[in-house]
Structure formats: C-alpha cells, structure tokens
Records
---
Amino acid sequence: MANVDIRTCGINLDRWYVVARSTEVKDKPIAVNLWHQEIVLYRDETGQIQALEDRCPHRQVKLSSGRIVNDDLECAYHGWRFDLEGNCVTVPYLAANQKLPSCKIRNYPAWELDGFIWLFPGEKHLANSILPMGVPEWEHLNYIATVSVIECKGHYSYLIENLMDMYHGHLHDNYQAWASAELKDLYSDDDRVDAHYEAQSYYKIDKIWSISQLFFPGLRRLHPEPLDVSYIYPHWVSTLGQDFKIYCLFCPVNETYTRAYLIQFTSLNAFWRLHKLPVWFRRFVKDSLFGSAQKMLDGLVHQDVEMIEQEQLARLNRPELRNYELNPTIASVQRLIRQHA
Ligand code: FES
Ligand SMILES: [Fe+2]
C-alpha cells in the first residue's frame, strides 16, 4: 500500500461523491463522469434524481443524447427505452416473434441533498449504511453561499493537498484570503485528517455592512483567527474564525482530471437582530446575497488550478523529480488517500 503511486491512486468507490449541482439537472438527461464511469442523470416524473450507466447496450452510444419518455430513458439512435432499474423495456421495431433483449444497464444510488447531486459508485448494498457528508449551511437562513466550479487537469491528490496546506496563502496575496498561517495541531484517523492553523484574517463580519469588506479592501483589518481545514474523505471542509466556512465537494474524473465544487459561506450568525425578522425576509436577504463572493472565489480557484495543473504537467514530463515537503499535513493526507484507494 505504501508504494502505491499517490499521483495515479484510485478512489474509494464506497463513498458518496458529488456529480452535479441540483440546478444542472432539469428536464433533459445530462452526462457526468466519475472515476472512469460515464453516468447519465435525469429526473423522473416525481422530480427525483435517477442515475444510469450512460451507455446504450444496443450499439454503445450515450443514452444522455436521448430523451426522457414518461420515466424511461429513450436512446436517440433507434429508440430503445430503459426503465429506472436499467432494464430494456421497449424496442420500437420488435417483431411479433422476437423477444425483448435481456440487456440491462447499471443503475446507481443517487441522492439530491443540500443543492447537489450525490452519487454512490460502489457496492450498492453499502449505500444505505454510508451517509453523504451533506452541506447543512446550504438551506440555513444565516448563511450566504457562493459556488465556484473547479475544473482541473490534475489528479485529485494535488487538489486536496492544495486545500490542506494553508501555507499557500502566498499565492492568493492579492485577494487577501488569509495570511501568516502556522500549523498548530494535526489529527488523523481512518476517515479524516484535521489540520488546525493559526492565521490572520482580513475580514470581520460583525455588522451588517461588514459584508462590504468582500468588495472594498480598504475596510479590511488583519486580525488573528483560527483556521481549521479537514479532509473528511473524500471531501473537504474548512472554517476561518466564526464568519467563514468553505466546502470542497469532490468528483475525481480520472488520473489526470478532477472536477469539484467549492462552496463558500459567509455567516450572518453575529446579527441577532436579523434573526427576529420574518422568515420570508431572511430568505430574501439570503437569496439576494447569493454569489456575493463570486469574483473572489473564482479568482482563488483560478490561481490554485494554475498551480495544480503545473504540478501535474511536471509530474508527467519529469516523473523522476522528487518534492521537498515541510508541512506534515501532506503526509497525513497521502496516507489517507492510499488507505482508501
Ligand atoms: S444504439 Fe441505442 S437504440 Fe440503438
Ligand atoms: Fe488556494
């Protein structure tokens, strides 16, 4: 296990991964890809998410090019139809003396939760005993969300290492995300790695107008805050002080491509006066401020992706080069990845 190459390591299939945002799945089938598996997502008549193998067994074309008819998925090519279980139920030109082919495609457990589509690619019977991590702040009225999609030509290990090594605040200096991180504590077990840093934050959200610090650098003041990052396999979550929480939900696609959703929450917990207002108004505030950190979050993602893609490229071109590592968090992260692969 120890000699498995971390940069080509597989994933633990018996976990819930995030393959799409809820809003991406409308009335047409959509194609997603999770660790070499092509999957088609669609909504049945009740609006529930269904996930099938994205492959017509007739001629191996993508079912996601087809359409939904009642609750069946119809292939675009010759119109064969498949039910929610993945059974072939209709061949439009079946002769009276012919039987339906007994071809069946795989169906996957899928779960719409907290604004995202979670999918379980592993042993089906385990899906009920392992829970998706979830994002409880998504519906909570006191949190304002911003979502950024990470599309990255790199192995997922580079991304999680980037997220766990807070010494890279250097890269984001112009965004003033955080500064002067110092690792204080490191914990790991079979399912997670927790790294506790002391850092300096530029933001303090204690008055309703402090949200404007997100847009006006002149309003920011450096002050110490705890910075906690956790790799809760296979996803990531972090908090900076009381005010910010960020999730990264992973969808590793293959050895050199990773998709992920970064969700940043700004907390309104400090404004107790706001909590006395009617729920409809609080929902209005939450919804109108959705995406308020978009520019910053996209900017951070862009910088990180650039570095990760360079790491991946260097690895492919010069695999003999070795890294020098000073942050013990990285060794813990790699141990967890290997253990689960
Ligand atoms: S390839 Fe799908 S129906 Fe023929
Ligand atoms: Fe970063």
Note: The chain has two domains: 26-126, 136-340.
---
Amino acid sequence: MNKPNFLIIMSDEHSAQYSSVYGHPIIKTPNMDKMAKKGATFTNNVCNSPLCVPSRASFMTGQYVSNNEVWDNTKPMPSDKITWPYILRNNGYEAVLSGKMHLIGVDNLHGFERNLSYDPHIDEPLPHYSWEEGITKASKPWNHINEAREGTSPMIEADNKIEKESISFLSDKNRNKNPFALCVGFIAPHFPFIVPEKYFNEYFPDNIIMPDPPPGHLNQLSNHSKRLREMFGLDYNWNEIQIRKSIAAYYGLCTFLDEKIGNLINALKENNLFDNTIIIYTSDHGDMLGEHGLWRKMSFYDQSVRVPLQIIGPKFISGQVDKPVSNLDLFPTILDAANIDLDQYEYDGQSLINVLTTGNEDSLDDYVISEYFAHGTENPIGMVQKNEWKLIYEHDKNPKVELFNLNKDPHEYNNLSPNPEYHKIIKELSGKLINLWGDPEKLRKKIIYDQNSRKIIRKFAGTGNFF
Ligand SMILES: [Ca+2]
C-alpha cells in the first residue's frame, strides 16, 4: 500500500495573525501564501495551552492538558504515553524529529527515532513555580525588549542547522523506500528579538504596527493579565525605538521562518517526494507583541492562543476552513491519513480528514478548548471558543469570567460577561470546561500536589536532572 509521507513543521511562538496569509497587512510570508493556494488553511486553529511544554505534549498525544497532565514547562511527560510517532513507527514508518519539540526530562524523543539536529531549549532547565507560593513581582523589566536588534544569535544558528539537516534527510536517495514522517521544530519567531539585517531592515523603523490599546484598557485587564504583567516585568514604559526594534525583529523572524518553510517544500519537490507527502504547518502558541500590555504568551488573547494550521495533501482541498479546531486534532488526523485504525487509541481530538477531502465542515465539533495551568496563575484557567464567542474562565470561589464577541470585537477589548444578557452563552461554554475538568477544585489541588512534589524532588535530584 502506498502510504503518504509526512512533513510536519512546528514553529515556536508564531501567532496566526502575524502572517500575510492570515491577513497581516505588512508581514511578508509568501510561502504560507503559496501553501494556502495548494491546501487547506484553518482560520480558527488554537493551541491547547499557550505555553511550550504543555502545548507540545498535547500535540504529541492528542489529549487535553487536563487529561495529559503535563501542566507546565517543568513537568515531564511519562515515557509510557503513546504518541503519534510511536504509532507511525508501529505501522512501518520512519519517524524522526529535526530541532525543537521541548520534550524535557530523561526522554527527549517520546517516539521519534532520533533528532537530526538539536533542541536548544531543552539544555536550560526552566524555573519551577508553585501556586502556593503566590505571584512574585519581577525585580526588573523583561530583558528581551532592550536587547532587540539586527544580527544573529544561537537561535538563528540552530534554525539554520535544523533546516540544513532536514533538507539533507529529504535529499537522501533511499528516502523513497519506506514511508517517513519528518517533524521539523524551528525556534523562530521565538524571542530573542534578533534577526539578520536583511529581515530586520524590511520592517524597521516604520514598517510596523505599534500596540494601540484604547484609553483605560490596561486598567481594566483581567486578574490573569495583570498578574502576567507584574510577574514578568511587562508593566514598564520602554522607549518607543526599542519597542519598534522588538516588533520589527519579530516580523523579520516570521519572514525568516517562512523562507525555511518554502525551502523544505522545495526540497520535497526536488526529490520527487512532494506528490506523496502530506505537509502540515503549525506553531505551539503565539506571542502578544505588546497588545493588551502583554508580551510573550500564557494568555488566551488571539495573539497568544490562535496559531496557523495549514495542511497540503495529494487528495486534499484547497481553501479555508473556518470552524474552530485545535492542535490536538493533529494526532487523529495524522494517523487517519496513514490509514491507521483510530478506534484502538484514546485521544480527545477529531480527525480532520473528512473536511480535508470534502471541504465540508458540518461534521466538525463546533467548539474548542484550550487550558492553562502554569506560572502566572494560581488557579486552573480555560478558554472555550464557539462560533463568534470566546469565553475565558478562571476557577475560583467566585469564578472570574470574560466573554468576547470575536465578530464585533476582534481586538477583544470589550468584556461582555457583566451583562446579564449573556448568561446563557456563558453557562453553555463554561459548562463544557467544567464537564472536562470534573470538580475544578479537585483539579487545582491535584496540580498543587504535583507542583509541591516536584519541588521536593528537584531539591534532591538536582535542577535539570529529571526535569
Ligand atoms: Ca514555545
């Protein structure tokens, strides 16, 4: 049987809206534009947690974070979790990683046969946070904005190496013998805001859009947003030139990344692999870039949670899919595309193969869920999106709720939750989250127990030995 190959590209920190294909008026991502002509572009795809490790672990297993239990960036995934690379290998595939998947702990592969290059982000153990210790205010402003400039960095060098080894893998003369899945994890456009001059100069100083919140907006932010600003030193008035440099470098990193996507697709074509390869492009989460007074991710605003999803395949449609989907749908989609029986596996996602082959969105679920259980909160937080509605729900004795109408208020400035008119939709969407979580207070206690356990283990096992 002729099984399709897979080229799966996951960037780091690429918000969907920061690309020309998703409507940005300035940022140039011509290869994503070309992908849109050849395949499907999912306009409302979200990551399942706006943070590296939990988001990527859910992508690997197809499970919601609350089921997968990879709560934060220092929580390793158990090695006996079944992942899509293991299942592909069990069905005759060669499944390899090139670059980042942020698989921390003793098992850096979780089913991939090997890493063709390396993952620079698993070398540095990240700080461990505990909800019981509360939020500490940053002692100084976030450093990456003052460091923004043109030039190169170890992350640029890593991406060049990841690209080179991936192209070398695709150019191997034996590549046609067995079906393969090559998963390429680029670092771009993740900070540091440093990018080679040719990309930087494309945007700096004037070819950018500055954050422009309406008057008073920063005083009305949710508790979660206010905590993030305090904890990460984001509530600081940087000078405008440095903000322009940061945004220009991020835009430049998007174009730098887009070139690499194009080069990988060209390598498929040059090696006669394109016609039998399914190509997927997505990212683990986005970046706020100063909107709502926030940088980095960790929030459920569009810039942080909505990520690109483009899929090209020999029998797939070209066009837009507008119903909300999420990255954990890729687990069943990849297996389904490889003709593997899905019934024997446990996963939370839905296969996208039907919409990819027919263009008919009717069979897709009408809502998606994303969750956050890491630093910057003291309680479980979740997001449910259905049609034009986005609900953000923080568990507490008195739950904190935000509701946005994405059609009327695409910038998410107008929280409708205090208006009794919206009680019905709030009840419906929060019910989906409670249904997933069961008792939210039990979930909170379970996460705290896990955080405290890891704190003790780290004390004796050493930082970075196990996680
Ligand atoms: Ca990330």
Note: The pocket of calcium ion is lined by residues 12-13, 52, 284-285 (CB under 6 Å).
